[in-house]
């Protein structure tokens, strides 16, 4: 089976593979409704904008009917009203750097980039309250002047926005120490599909506020009971992985319910825009570390990444990142002074503990146990550290611009496995690509057991596309059954992994997720096709004339 090519409409513009919902509302009516609610300057339905918003950073393409620009909660309410009245679905969007196709949709795409104020900063409680469209980099620049930061730091940190980070439960380079977005969200304000505003935070289930909340949103008590009824299955479905972005975090909710608390915000973190539109986010901030040490290792043997990383965990790193030899070749060994013999690079950071003792251990006993391509490079100064991180950050943009028809496609790019199985898993990934006649970029957050894996294929070549399918099948089986891992550590399920979601947690737990979605969004208006879909992973693939993977 070959991926469905994008249809071209009569005027030559690219059109969606997605089918329209029924009942169908004509464009003029849709435009009138949106403009009445928002004003003409916040609505666009021309081909250019629909084309621009038909992609995110994944290989998927879905052309929306309209793009609405929200600047306030009132704007979001107005758009939701049109969605309900005209039965047109809505996809909330921040920067659109989703790697799983979660920020595109067939109805109205709600651009939140103008909805971006910092509302207040409570220094004593260490909490900042923001609107969802604020850029992470902008927020952290504001916080830095106050000596603090929002800790999760995805590779897209200069591009992504808080609403999108909450949507995907993003993490990043330092998640080995600082966890995921969900670990830092204190509360959310959410608009549900029916327009109800919810202040989502931890609520004791025997208290008056819970009663008041379920009085307003009875579906929440139905969800609570469903989760309680399936407590055993939910707990049994857990995997020994350090993080995930694979649907609703039902296990955290079970744990909180055991303490008599419903963690309402946790329900929405990682929900990929399928349960409500977030209009405010309260985040916990942390002090900026006084001192950091960054260490760069080049290893002659790729297989030594796992054992070295395992030894480093004991020293309490704040980041452990790896890059494989193929990716080092693409970066350019000469340009970056990368040793000819290096099969792997490890970048490790420490920002706490006895840093001097750690350095002694690193340059001494630890280094002597591995075949290093050259001695470890220990960077203390900010400039040198920034240069080392730049090398790590350049992997993604370099790898996706690989020359030739075989590109580094992201369709198996975010697996996470139990950390202690990383050495075996990394070997498996290299071998998997080889067995399917290609090579792959393998890099990522080795400290969490989370790898970014991008095999090189040309999906316009029927043979290669069959190889992609076969590789994906084998990959899913191995990640889920052999390694007991999950297909997404941080990039989300989106459209690319929706067909795999039931296998991650098992049918019973998947059904609880599905009922949770149906209870809060019974008409399926919010981000249809994302998280819950039985369509194969290539169903919304960009087509035979796919653009460069981003
Ligand atoms: C170069 C590059 C590097 C990356 N590195 C990392 C990494 O290290 N770690 C990582 O976790 N991710 C990474 N990503 C993926 C991506 O950047 C993150 O998932 C990011 O958090 C998405 O933010 P965004 O602002 O682009 O959100 P979008 O892509 O616009 O949206 C993401 C999801 O959030 C939902 N959403 C957005 N706003 C709202 C709202 N107001 N209410 C409800 N739902 C909403 C959307 O519907 C969608 O489901 C990387 C991506 C790129 C391109």
List the helices and strands and how they pair.
Elements: H1 27-38, E1 43-44, H2 47-52, E2 66-69, H3 73-86, E3 90-93, E4 108-111, E5 118-122, E6 127-130, H4 136-144, E7 148-149, H5 162-168, H6 175-178, E8 185-191, E9 197-200, E10 202-204, H7 208-216, H8 219-229, H9 231-236, H10 250-258, E11 261-263, H11 264-268, E12 277-284, E13 286-287, E14 293-299, H12 305-313, E15 319-324, H13 325-331, H14 333-336, E16 344-350, H15 355-368, E17 372-379, H16 382-393, H17 395-400, E18 407-408, H18 422-435, E19 440-445, E20 450-457, H19 462-482, H20 501-505, H21 507-520
Parallel strand pairs: 2-4, 3-4
Antiparallel strand pairs: 1-2, 5-6, 6-12, 7-13, 8-9, 8-12, 10-11, 14-16, 14-17, 15-16, 15-19, 18-20, 19-20
The structure holds flavin-adenine dinucleotide (FAD).
Strand order of the largest sheet: 17-14-16-15-19-20-18
Bound molecules: flavin-adenine dinucleotide
Q: Report the count of strand segments.
A: 20
- CATH topology name of the domain at 118-287, in short, is Uridine Diphospho-n-acetylenolpyruvylglucosamine Reductase, domain 3
Could you describe the 3D structure shown?
By secondary structure, the chain is an alpha+beta fold. Among the domains are: 118-287, 2-Layer Sandwich (Uridine Diphospho-n-acetylenolpyruvylglucosamine Reductase, domain 3); 290-399, Alpha-Beta Plaits; 402-491, Alpha-Beta Plaits (2-Layer Sandwich), CATH 3.30.70.2740. The protein is built from 21 helices and 20 strands. The strands form five sheets. A seven-stranded antiparallel sheet has the order 17-14-16-15-19-20-18, with helices on both faces. The protein has a five-stranded antiparallel sheet with strand order 5-6-12-8-9. A hairpin with a 5-residue loop joins β8 (185-191) and β9 (197-200). α8 packs antiparallel against α21 (507-520). The radius of gyration is 23 Å and the shape is globular. The model is unreliable at 1-20 and 544-550 (pLDDT under 50). Bound molecules: flavin-adenine dinucleotide.
